[in-house]
Amino acid sequence: MTQLTNRQPFFILLLTVVFLSLYAFQAPAPGPESPDNAGEKAWVDSIYNAMSEDERIGQLFMIRAHSDLGPDHVAKVEQLVKDYHVGSMCFFQGSPEEQIRLINKYQEQSRIPMLMAIDAEWGLGMRMKTSTISFPYQLTLGAIQNNQLLYDMGVEVGKQLLRTGLHINFAPVVDVNNNAANPVINFRSFGEDRYNVTAKSYQYMRGMQEAGLLTSAKHFPGHGDTDVDSHLDLPVITHDRARLDSIELYPFKALIKRGLTGMMIAHLSVPAFDSRKNRPTTLSRATVTRLLRDSLGFDGLIYTDALEMKGVTKHFAPGETEAEAVMAGADVLCLPEDLGAALREIKRYLADGKIDPSQVEASVKRILRAKYRLGLTRFTPIPQQNVREELNNREALALKQTLLENAMTLVRNPGDLIPFNDLDTTTYASLSIGSGVRTPFQNRLADYVEMPHLQVGKEISGGKADELVSSLSKKDVVIIGLHNMSSRASQNYGITQSTINFVRRLAGQTKVVLVVFGNPYSLKYFDELDWVLEAYQEDGTSQDVAAQALFGAFPIRGRLPVTASDKSRFNTGVSTRASIRLGYALPEAVGMDSDTLSQIGDLIRNAIDTGATPGAVVLIAKDGRVVFHEAYGHHTYSKSQVMERDDIFDLASVTKIAATTMSIMRLQGEGKLDIDHPLSQYFGDLANSNKKDLVPREIMAHRAGLHPWIPFFEQTLSGTKKNPKPSSKYYRSAASGDYTIPVTEKLFMRQDFADSIWQQIIHSELRANKNYVYSDLGFYMLGRTVGQVSGTPIEQYVEQNFYHPLGLQTATYNPWMKYDPTTIVPSERDQYWRQQKVQAYVHDMGAAMLGGVSGHAGLFADANDLAILLEMVRRGGHYGGRRYLKKEVINDFTHRFTGDSRRGIGFDMLELNNDKPANLSRLASTRTFGHLGFTGTAVWVDPDQDLIFIFLSNRTYPSMYNRKLGSANFRPRVQDVVYKAIR
Q1: CA-based nearest residue to 552, from 585, 512, 582
Q2: Which of 70, 76, 78 is nearest to 94 (CA)?
Q3: What are the phi and psi torsion angles at 122 (to 5°)?
Q4: With bands split at pLDDT 50, 70 and 90, how would you rate the model's confidence at 180?
Q5: pLDDT one-digit tens code per residue, 676-716
Q6: Share of the chain above pLDDT 70, in %
Q7: What EC class does the entry list (predicted)?
């Protein structure tokens, strides 16, 4: 791991960010252009010459518009368009559908199509929070080291705004925020470093403009170093010209050189540019014209900040404000308070010679040129159909997650505690402060390791603190999430003193990992903490990503974009190694298509409707990420219990790979067993049998000459063939005396019959040849061999060597001993032996008669646990910072047995003989390995596609004789969809 902090030579940091900044400026990014200069000039001149004076002035006005304020507001806007010939609108809150409807309506009423703008710094979600995507705040983005991602975001934001009829985004914010108390810029800035702000502003701008949008950098000449909100008063920036030129102006100058299309002027008093008292830069010709236009050479559109803000209205009257802004050199007057007064005063300034008519002409023609380049010579209505679905597209959501992943910043990490490694030897707990319910952060933590999840309010009383410290201090690691924070320094960023005191107190008694879902300036309160992850934002995706970061689903690379304290300075951050565990993402993040995957639901609903299975769970992982995990139907056809994603299933023969083969591979890698030596060397009971020369390799490939199975349970029945019952000779309804083997909760078998089972297996006849015949008998013996070689029964061996250290939470034999039966899917209503519903006890008869544990069946698990186990195998036996299996052993076991068209060693594989039935999707690669289970399960790993497919069902309920799931090939058909979804 590496760490970059303020303790390293500053010149290294400087050279690094300068290099990154220069690298970002490899190519210019012009906005929408007209290749037809003659046609553009002719159109602009003709429109301008046909205008009256009032119409020309009207082009300078940008009025406020909402799509959620009802008919009175709409009527008012329509009247303003009619009366004042306004040139543009700025939209605020509403919905995308209504915004499009109103834009179409307003444009229809305007002789010259209007420019439509919005303040969408982090996308449409800034104004349409509940219906569109909010991308990360700029301060969050400031932590990202890969600036290409900001370009990608810019392209997506540009597309989304254009789709809703907009042409201008008042973004990016290029203010260098070097004042922690700034109440108005703060999290809207990329941070305190001019190079970082410049590089990221450029990429965001470039992306939006290349998508076809006009952008507007703001807030010129720099709003970052103030503690006054210009919405409420006029901030004063007292720096001299040299300082302003080197810091505040730096990003603006860089973007001007790279094709910036618009600039918004802030309401600031900057004596270095204009010494008049209470003179906002918006109304300062020295700032707008002489500095921005003449000195810096900016020829794009110049917008005022909202002219209804107190930073300007406190010192200037309506009408006067707008006239002074035009005189200063502004092209577009945003949100004037009184259009009538503004029109009158501008005309008066023109008549009095205060405003040069040529200046108005230049501004109007600049606006008209922008309209021509945007195709607004005539208006084409915007379609409303499917707009919400298009805006909330999965590629955009996947991009949002990628941005947040890259922003996660590990501020301190002594001893490399993060990502967490030892899940089996470390105890964990989580505490969410500021939330009254279990958070998305805690929900994702729960996917990695079992732990208690607590919540508490921001004010933690002494008694509550005592209670929490008493319980949490017993844990090795406590993960604390800070929630519902504030961005404002004046509110201590939403952190109470009681929270600070509690966190410090607990950190004195155990390891506390603090995760801050809010402003990084708040880190100043937690300098004493050793482990801190800055997650920047509160939304569900941020919380999900933060939990994944702690467990190593992706490398942490973010750097603090601001300085909070001496121990949390700009560019501080610890980088962690590459992904060590499964992550969770959208299909689009790994090049899969969500719409295609939705067909899985159609197939399984068809399976349910046709009686193939009561329900199912499907999980898909690709490239180390779970990208699809859905539950369908119910536990039974009575529909009394809905199927859940974390329900536990009887895996049947998947046990062969998830328990027995895993164990044999480990013992082989440790040199404790050789699959090419006779099994009798390890399982001594075979020494004097006809099986003394059988080798595990052949047994595991089902080529050892063993018979398929022995129906042991039939030997213990009484009654008639039509009405069989468990014989009282072998069973009791409650455990007593020698009847202690639990077949079900109501059926206990006599102990000595288990010995009879083993003797029958050991002395069973062999077939005449070793052609392929699928057999359970060999895996009975292999399961017992694991116990004899390791000195530990197989159920304990897999728990100790795989399931517990991997953090699996459901994988187990005999789940009735550990879990609520209602979370375990029933497998059958047995009417041929047990005479009851089989739930939480193994369905397989032989495994049931051995107390639920065998090498061929008996394992239960949920889909997530299976995904983790198989991901470990896919990664060559290494997972979570620990090696479980040797890669060369895995390679041996997952290659076909010599001369076989289907079987590996323990693993099933794609059947290569097309004359035989397909056991999985024909679209899978030939190297795909896994297994099917009798109860309706399937697990497959395709190493060529880095793909894991898990299908869990209870097709045997209510009867195991129901073969519809297999006869209709539902499992391969679902898997077909998965491959078709790969782009």
Answers
A1: 582
A2: 70
A3: -115, 35
A4: confident
A5: 999 999 999 999 999 999 999 999 999 999 999 999 999 99
A6: 96
A7: hydrolase
CB 567, CB 412: distance < 8 Å: yes
Both structure tokens of 923: 């679209």
The candidate with the shortest Cα–Cα distance to 335, out of 314, 351, 312, is: 312
Say how far residue 404 (Cα) sits from the centre of its chain.
8
pLDDT digits over 580-614, tens only? 999 999 999 999 999 999 999 999 999 999 999 99
Distance separating alpha carbons of residues 552 and 577, to the nearest angstrom: 8
Q: Is 945 left (phi over 0), alpha (psi -120 to 50) or beta?
A: alpha
Tokens 């056809």 identify what position? Answer: 637
Beta strand pairing call for 947-953 and 615-622: antiparallel
Query: At which residue do the structure tokens 């810091």 appear?
Result: 247
User: Residues 49, 54, 59, 65: is their CA dihedral positive or negative?
Assistant: negative
- Written as six digits, the tokens of 779 are 């895996």
pLDDT, tens only, 466-518: 999 999 999 999 999 999 999 999 999 999 999 999 999 999 999 999 999 99
Tell me the domains of the chain and their CATH numbers.
Answer: 35-390 (3.20.20.300), 408-580 (3.40.50.1700), 599-674+790-961+969-980 (3.40.710.10)
**Is 921 in contact with 903 (CB distance < 8 Å)?**
no
User: Does residue 475 contact residue 430 with C-beta atoms inside 8 Å?
Assistant: no
Q: Rounded to a whole number, what is the distance in angstroms from the first to the last CA of the chain?
A: 34
Instruction: Name the token pair of 797.
Output: 């061996």
885, 666 contact by CB (below 8 A): yes
- What distance in Å separates the CA atoms of residue 788 and residue 527, rounded to the nearest whole number? 54
Retrieve residue 465's tokens: 């603190």
Question: Could you tell me the sign of the dihedral formed by the alpha carbons of 826, 829, 832, 833, in that order?
Answer: positive
How far is residue 835's CA from residue 822's CA, in Å, rounded to a whole number?
20
- How far is Cα 62 from Cα 333, in angstroms, rounded to an integer? 6
Q: What is the rounded CA–CA span in Å between residue 450 and residue 851?
A: 27
Mean pLDDT, range 970-977, rounded to an integer: 98
The Cα 514–Cα 478 span in angstroms is: 8
pTM: 0.94
What whole-number distance in Å separates Cα of residue 916 and Cα of residue 618? 26
pLDDT in tens, 181-219: 887 889 999 999 999 999 999 999 999 999 999 999 999
- 301 contacts 366 by C-beta, under 8 angstroms: yes
* CA-CA-CA-CA torsion sign (872, 875, 876, 881): negative
In 857-877, which positions are buried (b, 16+ CB within 10 angstroms) versus exposed (e)? bbbbbbbbbbbbbbbbbbbbb
CA-CA distance, 617 to 645, in Å (whole number)? 6
**Residues in CB range of 13: below 8 A, 6 or more apart:** 4, 571
Cα–Cα separations (whole angstroms), residue 560 to 85, 95, 210, 514, 762: 47, 34, 29, 15, 66
pLDDT at 31: 55
Residue where the block lists tokens 């089989």: 838
Whether residue 221 has a cis bond before it, omega within 30° of 0: yes
If we measure between CA atoms, which residue out of 380, 480, 390 comes closest to residue 428? 480
Q: How many Å apart are CA 210 and CA 135, to the nearest integer?
A: 19
d(CA 213, CA 99) in angstroms, rounded, equals 17
- Residue 422 CA to residue 576 CA, distance in Å, equals 16
User: Which residues on neighbouring strands pair with residue 949, listed in sequence order?
Assistant: 620, 940
Strands (E), 811-890: 812-813, 828-830, 836-838, 859-861, 878-879, 882-883
pLDDT tens readout for residues 721-778: 889 999 999 999 999 999 999 999 999 999 999 999 999 999 999 999 999 999 999 9
